Every structure is written in C-alpha cells, then in structure tokens.
Amino acid sequence: MIEAAPITNIMRALADPTRRAVFERVAGAEEITVAELTRGSGVTQGAISQHLKALKQAGLVAERPEGRHVYYRAQPDGLAPLVDWIGHYRAFWRDRLDNLRDVLKDIDP
After folding, report:
1. Three-state DSSP class for residue 51
2. Measured distance CA(25)–CA(46) in Å, rounded
3. How many CB atoms lie within 10 A of CB 3?
4. CB contact at 8 A, 26 and 17
5. If DSSP codes are grouped into helix, strand and coil, which group holds residue 85?
6. Could you tell me which residues are beta bridge partners of residue 74?
7. What are the pLDDT digits (tens) for 78-87?
8. How far apart are CA 66 and CA 77, in angstroms?
C-alpha cells in the first residue's frame, strides 16, 4: 500500500492555484528567489514566502541560502509519491478495462 501522508501533503500544497503557479515558476527555473517570484505575479512577497514554505514542507521545493538571498529550486523527487499513486490506479483501471473488453467480446463476438 502506498503511504497516504506524503500524497495528501503534495495534493494539499498543489490544490491552491496560486501555490501551483509558484511551483510551476520554480520548476521552470534552475533557481529563483522570492523577489523574482514576486515580480509581475500580483502577489505580495509575504504571500510568496508562505506559499514557498508550504511547498517546502510538502517536499516539492528546496532552498539554498547565499548571503542575503535564498534560492529556491524544484525538488527532483518531490512529486514521486504522487506519480507512484497515480501509476497504481492507472494499472488498476487498465486491468479493469481489459477485463471488460474480454467480457464484451464473450457477450457479442
């Protein structure tokens, strides 16, 4: 069985559209600062910082302090629990649909 806590944390973190947009910007950059994320976003620096905190707690981003700046980057394996969970159900439905196809062939050759 796949552990639910990491998946729940990831889903909760990505459920917010603004947070998801922040994650997409972080994932699209090698590294990015809060100031760069704030520019042109229409969101305050404090709100960006809170979104980054939630993404970090979910294991989706990592930070690297350097002097007065903190650089954020996407965590390479952060989405792995969610991908595994989706993969489990993809196999489940594929098997069920294969079984249904066989039953339908038996009913109407």
Report:
1. helix
2. 17
3. 10
4. no
5. helix
6. 61
7. 999 988 888 8
8. 23
Which residue type does 26 have?
A: V
The encoded tokens of residue 32 equal: 């990015």
pLDDT tens-place string over residues 9-46: 999 999 999 999 999 999 999 999 999 999 988 999 99
Place of tokens 């796949």: 2
Strand pairing partners for 64?
Answer: 71
CB atoms within 10 A of CB 23: 24
Which tens digits make up the pLDDT trace of 80-106? 998 888 888 887 777 777 777 877 887
| In the block, residue with structure tokens 């993404």 | 55
How is residue 64 annotated by DSSP?
Answer: E
Share of the chain above pLDDT 70, in %: 95
Beta carbons of 72 and 30 less than 8 angstroms apart: no
Residue 49 CA, distance from chain mean position: 17
**pLDDT band at 3, cuts 50/70/90?**
low
Our CA angle for 5, 10, 12, nearest 5°, is 90
